[in-house]
Amino acid sequence: MARNVTIEPADQTTGVEPGGAVARAVRATKVYGSGPTEVRALDEVTVDLEGGRFTAIMGPSGSGKSTLMHCVAGLDSLTSGEVFLGGVELGSLSDRELTMLRREQVGFVFQSFNLIPTLSALENVTLPLALAGARPDPDWLDTIIDTVDLRERLAHRPAELSGGQQQRVAVARALVTRPRIVFADEPTGNLDSRSGAEILAFLRRAVDELHQTIVMVTHDPMAAGYADGVVFLADGRVVGHLASPTPQTVLDRIKSLGE
Amino acid sequence: MLAITLRGLWSHKRRLAGTFLAVLLGVAFLAGTLVLGDTLRANFDTLFTSVTGDTGAVVRSATKVDSSPASPRGPIDASLAGRLRSAPGAAEVQPVADGIGQIVVSDGKVLRTLGPPRASNWIADPSLTPYRIVEGHAPQGLDEVVINRGAAKDGGLRVGDRTTIDTPRPVPVTVVGIVTFQGADGFGGSSYTGFSAAGADRYLAGRPGQVSSILVKPAPGVSQRELVGKVRPLLPAGVEAITGQQLSDESISAINQGFLGLFRTFLTVFAGIALFVAMFTIANTFSIIVAQRTRESALLRAIGASRRQVLWSVVVEALAVGVVASLAGLGGGIGIAVGLKALFKGFGFPLPTSGLVLQGGSAVSSVGVGVAVTVVAGVLPALRASRVAPLAALRDVAAEPPAAPRTRVTAGAVLAVAGVATTLVGVLAGGDATTLLTGVGAVLLIVGAVVLGPAVARPASRLIGAPLRRLRGITGALASQNAMRNPRRTSGAAMALMIGVAVVTLFTVFTASIQASIRQTVSQSFGGDLAVVSSGFGGANTARLDPRLAGEIGRLPEVRQAVGIGAGRALVGGSSQEITFADLARLNGVVGLRVDAGSLGQLSGPRFAVASSVADDRGWRLGQSVPIRFADGATQRLTLAAIYQGEEGSIVGNYLLPRDQWTPHAPGAADRTVLIALRPGTGLETGRAAVERVAAGYGRPDVQDRAQYTDSLASVLGPGVSVVYVLLVLAIVIALIGIANTLSLSIHERTRELGLLRAVGETRGQVRAMVRWESVIVALLGTIGGLGLGVFLGWALVRASAAGGTGTFAAPPLQLAIILLVGAIAGVLAGLRPARRAAKLNLLAAIASE
After folding, report:
1. CB A116 to CB B753 under 8 A?
2. Which CATH superfamily hosts domain A51-70+91-258?
3. Which of A18, B18, B634, B673 has the maximal Cβ count within 10 Å?
4. How far apart are CA B583 and CA B560, in angstroms?
């Protein structure tokens, strides 16, 4: 398997974007359908996602928050505008280059865990490395396994794990390649509040202790309270920012936006 | 409910495509064989009716040495013709002398035809012969002949050319005319040579004045039956008269019982195998579809549908698919019939088929069988669907229970062990029950394997996938685990291939064993250096050598001993047997026979010898006097003077007569082979050159050394083997469609998982590889199972029929390795489409589908 597609690392010539952004969207527009059924999921969104920070993206259903995430993560393409990840404009990449980019620079955590049922917890964690034909760095693997507290469960299949445990496996899988950025799509949506809080604490630790960049899509103010900053979206547009959020300030802001 | 069913059917028609195709192919093959059979039958009917149907009466010897209607008969006196001319109602009387006429062409060899080389006296009256002169004139002189247009074309002969006809005695002739057979180049692949009446009497008749039959043409207004009535009183004892219509009926029934019957059975067996394999494919598809629809079925149950209604909805679905696919298959059958025709022609069996005949009965039975197979295959999955609890609609249930229940494992193991045991008992115990026990054992074993399949599929996939894991990393690991995750499904797909491969393997092992057996027998019993066999139609297995050839070769200084061996049929102690005749005194040193009792050396006068198996079967001992009835009607008592060890397929067969006891009843009888031992000190090539010089005057028959002779006898199965392989390919194709279909349905189920893999960095290439390897694992599972099953059953078959002369078991490693390789490649092919679909999957839709 050829792995000769290299994505320029962020700290070289193309470098970190001014202001320390790991990823940014510039006038990003995504249109579904055409004519009378046209839906503008993203309408000229410009946003910087800064390195080493935990950013939450919030908004009501249909606000475009998932679409924005998919486009920045290289899962979906824009109708117009540009998305940069580590200084590389994604629109110019082929499917194969995008796959390599996701494999090496992006981590994902989904609402519905999305583990491979036939693989053990450990195999699920190391899956992205295995796909790249690479060996895990044992120290790093230990670190992230301890971060998400999975040591006792490594040999189990997903079906033998609780929802919270499955999501911890997913978090570890997202971190294992030391990605430039981790996207978490409603990571607590399918969990009870205690397991949800655990996951959020792990994500927080990944940012604080491992200097990971995390972008989380959520509509839960409690979850957003763990972030360093919040970007609010509505009808495909950025409608506000909030630094150092707490559940209360997030809730207040949502209320004010609703008026 | 019906509306819901049909709408549901339409909405997932794509998923049923595999089922549809499997039914279609199976039915098409069946319909194709039936159409071909009908066509052949109709053609033969017209052919024979037109050949002899118009002849008024046919007068011939009443003696038969064979139970078939086309038995060879002895000659009758030509002088009878004179008496018949006086019969009231006879307008014309035509004696016919039949014989062999091998046409020697420019390279000195006899023309290699695709049918027997027939010769007779030329019949001028167009109502008594199907042949017409289209060029030149009728033969008049002793050395004048007409030949059929096909032979003239193939042999590069023209009117006026000089050549030789081996009857088998070489006769120098001039071609004076070209004839056609009802406008065609010839009768099938046979050649025809017409001599003048005098020529036929000299060269074709066993003795001058003898003919094969006499044709009588009725005067206007006289019916065939009336004519026969008038002719009969004029006939001496041992001669009979029948109507032309009866003769053509005889020929038709001979061909129906013989060639055509075999041919139809042969093709129907393959159609049966294809349909059987299709059944597995269909059942597996329905199982998966039903499992994937568990929620829908449960919802129907929850809102008030009865169990029966759910059951019927699946059965109706099977019925609908069966009807549509079978009707399409019937159409496809016409194409298959055309293809089969071409196939047989390509392998050297041109079939007399003009136009295509489809009889109502064949159409109805093809469609009926297709529908029945589909519905039967759909019933089990339907029952499973009907057992879904209404609550399943509310729960998130797994599509299918992953593991095989313990009862199933036990039942399967018991069946398989019982099957193996029964087969072994049947084979090892021997005796009358062998065939029955072996057959029952084989059926039990196959059923056991099918029942056990799901239990075996998981560990077997793990085993097959193990090297893949090492070589292909995560892609291989995922592939092998995907193959293991639903053993019932995996085994369902693999089983169809297993059955197909088992049949292929069985056939391979069986033919290899027959050949090995022939080789062994020949190499044991042939003690000479060279053998001469006919180079024309039928090769080493036909008797077309001039009996004088052996004598002439024997006089060569390079040759120590040469013996001509001929064969024919006679009634020995009342039963029709193949007889070998030779100069027994000359066998010594050329044919190594182990004599158990008596002595071959003393075998002169009215004596004969048999193989020990015959003596055992018939309870004969030395000194036994046995009546032998020859084709000329004479019966003679011969004394059993020697019993030798021999298996069928050995060069001298089971009944051995001195030549001087045979030839009086069949003058000029041709030899099948001349076996030669060279004088010590003579090099093989020197000897061969000397023999070839002599053989040059006899139509250049092939002069073979031991290895070549053994090969030519072992190749008796010849091109038929290739035809069988081509026919079996269809069953394999249906099985592959099953695998492809199963994979496609599984991929549909794993949409989300595939999306995730893509999201975390699996390339499209890796997705494709993963699906492809899964397909290879499933295919190898079926192939390996089939190989095992086929080799075991092949061994059993060989042993069970050991009495028939195939005692040597041979499992040719190269061929078996090729089957395995083809199985793996087939897996790759079956995986192509599902792999492409999996790789094309829309990533976002895959992740988003909740």
Report:
1. yes
2. P-loop containing nucleotide triphosphate hydrolases (3.40.50.300)
3. B673
4. 15
